[in-house]
Amino acid sequence: MSDEEDPESMDEEDLESMDEKDPMCDAILVTQSMFGGDDYMKMQAKVTFEEELKKEQLEVEHVRGEVYVGNRRGLDLAGMKAKLSAHESKICFLEACVQDLKTNAEDLKNNVKALTGRVSVLSIAAKEYKWVRQRSLSTFKRDHLPDTMEQSDYDIIRTVNQIVHEGDVVVDAFLYEEGGRRDTHTFEELYGLHPAIVRTIEHPETLNILNLHAQVRAHKHKTGTEEFFQKFAAFIQAFSESSMNPNYLTSEPRNATCIAYWALHNCPKYKDGGG
Fold this sequence. Notes:
By secondary structure, the chain is mainly alpha-helical. The chain has a domain of 82 residues. The chain has ten helices and three strands; from the N terminus they run αβαββαααααααα. A three-stranded mixed beta sheet has the order 1-3-2. Helix 3 packs across helix 4. The longest helix has 73 residues. The protein is elongated, with a radius of gyration of 41 Å. The chain starts with 11 loop residues before the first helix and ends in a 9-residue tail after the last helix.
């Protein structure tokens, strides 16, 4: 807006668009000039600007809250700038949406992983429950229909009795979910860790060691060695201090958890020399 223009002569729309702190608008004039050296092009530009002002009527246009005055080609350029700014804003918005989608996809991936693990556990539990029901039927035959007993019934009873007295840390841990068992001390005495912690462990070697401890601890006819229980406690301590890092058997150099694992794995399990 030129210094000679009187704001009082502006219409209401122009006045509303004028910034109180910076009562200015952009004046844009676009035309074509001759190509050449720098000085020549500057001189030709002045000439063509003057000619453009003489032959073409200037217009005022409002673009996205800004006021522009100029010839038609200049105002078209101002519109392109506004469109570019709008596209940039839209791109930023879409990039944020993409990031949200990536986050949601990662959450869904973790949920699927957790559900897959849960299905696996439930499948194991269902399989073992079938064995328990098999034993129930065979036990009924033994107690009430002894003449119908077959060798397979005795095999089922013997096999399931062995399964029941062995450790199954994964299935047992899910017995302590909300609404389940509360005697977590019993679980920790048997497996060495809280059931909530065990539900986060997927490392087979670690789960096998926990089951081994339960088997030795609960054995009806054998007694575990003091060395075995001491080395198990050392393993649990090292594993806990490593923030339950499951890579202890493959990490280099050998770490405290790895050393404790092999020391426990190789020591005598029972006082009578068994295991």
